[in-house]
């Protein structure tokens, strides 16, 4: 639905603009009466309606690249809304909502058309868990990049700009590992669901996705073990987070890009 897509786009952008203004000029925050919470809920609602009608496809469900990306960004926006309600001063929606809005534009300009039939309803759990895990790890990767900039400026003893207004480094790291921990649990559940409910998870069209997902799982498992055993933090945690996310991004988005666009046009 084009109307729902456009309304969600406008609401996400409006929320991000107001959040950035509140962050940059907190002294003027009281003069801003724009209801961020209600607007975000409405954006999520319109976004969800757009996804629902887009997914309905003749002969099955549209689970192509851009529809899946839209679902993942909807989950990112929902998680961001929950996190932001607990830390309104440094609301992550400043960074996330513009990305979600951009994904809505991509979905409109490059619509997906792949219809997929799900023979087993249990596969829906595999897909949902995988998308939820990907959403959390995307947020973790963005958090890691911000943390890297913050860490570098602290080392140089020159904290400037918006970084100066962020929460303390320890708080940022704690938030990062909370995202990774929940994402790891969901990724584990998603992989187990795939093993149990997909007949041949190592089939030719799935093998690269499966192997890359397992590698990503191993990377994040090692990171969490290193955090627990040796107290890994700082640049070590940042590097492992980004490496794990890259493998996961190639596993999901890379495989869909190859299957839906490169191979289909070959």
Task: Describe the overall structure.
This protein has 266 residues and is an all-alpha fold. The protein has helices spanning 2-24, 36-55, 65-86, 93-109, 122-155, 169-197, 207-230, 234-265, and strands at residues 56-57, 60-62, 115-116. The protein folds into two domains: 1-112; 118-266, no CATH class. It is built from eight helices and three strands; from the N terminus they run ααββααβαααα. The chain has a three-stranded antiparallel β-sheet. A hairpin with a 2-residue loop joins strand 1 and strand 2 (60-62). Helix 2 runs antiparallel to helix 3 (65-86) and helix 3 packs across helix 5 (122-155). The longest helix is centred in the middle third of the chain and has 34 residues, at 122-155. The two termini are 31 Å apart. 36% of the residues are buried. The mean pLDDT is 83.
Strand order of the largest sheet: 1-2-3
Order of helices and strands: HHEEHHEHHHH
Question: Any idea how many domains?
Answer: 2
The total count of strands amounts to 3
Estimated radius of gyration: 19 Å
Tell me what portion of residues adopts beta-strand conformation: under 5%
Helical content band: over 70%
The residue ranges in which pLDDT falls below 50 over 5 or more consecutive positions are none
Structural class: mainly alpha
Biggest sheet details: 3 strands, antiparallel
Let me know the average pLDDT.
Answer: 83
Shape: flat
Count of helical stretches: 8
